Structures are given as structure tokens and as C-alpha cells.
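re: that chain from earlier
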Amino acid sequence: MKSTNMTKFVIKENISSIRGFYLIFILIIGLLTFVSRTSDGNMNSSGLEFASVVFLFITGLNAFKSNFYFSQAMNVSRGEFLKGLILATYPIALTMSVIDVIINRVYNLFIPSPTMYDMLYTAYRNQSHIWDWQSMERVWFQLNDIGTLAGTVLWQFSLYSTAVMLGLFITIIYYRSNKLMKVLISVSPIVILFFLRSLISVLPIELWVQVRALIDAAFGITAMNEYMAVLTYLVLSVLLALLAYLLARRAEVKTD
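^ sequence. v structure.
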């Protein structure tokens, strides 16, 4: 089995869970639409595609062990397995990004629902509402030009890819660790947060200003340049994929 066959296998394996996710997701937004239409209150929502980020992160967390065992049973080399597993991430992330944009545009016909992209990289951020003198309400109109649609798809695709790779990287670290290391890894986010909080009071403010400016530039926030964020996310996803590959290429099948 070559890496391309492994990629196809991983994609097919995830189709049912993706269908289930969207079935639940559409039922929820359908319910929200029904409630909005049958009530007098104004309802709005935002950033619903973050559910896809969480779903793909969990998908990454569950992507390694069972597929690794299957590949070893089929005498697939670790290199081919890892290449196939990593390459499967990108078509899944791109497909879900396109689906999310379509669902969002349909949902916006009934309920205003800006995406995370809208809130970060369009006029929504600076002038989130426009006053409608006819209805005497603050309303928001979503942009649907080619540039906005393409930017949304690409930005979500890069974010989704990073989410999967992060989940895959974490699960491989857990797989390669003993029980003590798993405990240490589990508590490490809390330790890191406390460490960073302590650094804030120790390091000079000028340094934090520079760090904030660097992050701002990397994600194009102030400049509202989504393509800088796309580039940053893709670099992060490739880096995580490389680290995951290096960690897993010598992984052994565990009997416990």
C-alpha cells in the first residue's frame, strides 16, 4: 500500500464522522433558524465554524493509533503510512472549509452570522453594524464577492489544517510517552500559563510590545491581510507535520 492509497483510506475512514458532524451541525442551525422565525426577538450568531476547528482537532487526536496498527498489519512502511496520513489532512480541511462557507451563506439568509474571517478581516471589525434608517435598526450585510469568498475558504483551510496537525502531533507525543510523561504533558498547559504570567511581570514592557507586534504582523490583524495569516497557519501546519513525522517514524506497536 503506497502513501496515496493510505491517503484515500484515511479520507474514506473519516467520511462517516464528517457526515455525522454536519448532520448535527445543520440540525442545530436549523433549530436556531426556526426559533428565530417563530419569535419576535432578533437573533444573531457568529463564528459557528469554530465547531469545525474543534471537530478537526479531535479528528487529529484520533488519527494515529488505529490507523498505525492497521498499516503495520498490512505491512505498510512507517514512512508511507505517515505521508498518507499527513496528506489526507489537506483535502479534508479544504472540503470542510468550502462546505462551511456554503452553509454560512445559506444560514445568513435567515440569521446574521459573521464568520471568524468576517470579524477579523472585513469591515465588520471596524464598523460591525450599519444603521438602517428604514427599519431603524443596526444591521450587517455580509460580503459575497470573489475576493471575500476565496479569502474565507483559504483562511479557514489553513486554520483547519493546523488544527488537525496539532491534534496529530499531540496524540503521537502521548503514544510515544510513558505514564509519567503523559501526566507531565497533561499538566504542561497550566504550567506554561503560570510561567507566562510570571514572565509578564519580570520582562520589560517593550519586549511584550515587540512580541505583540510580531504576532500581529504574522496574522495580518491590524493590516487586515488574511493572506499573512494563511501563510503563517500553513507554515505551522507543515512544521507540526514534520515534527509528527519525526516522532512517529520509529514508533512501535504497543500490546498494552
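DSSP finds nine helices and two strands in the chain.
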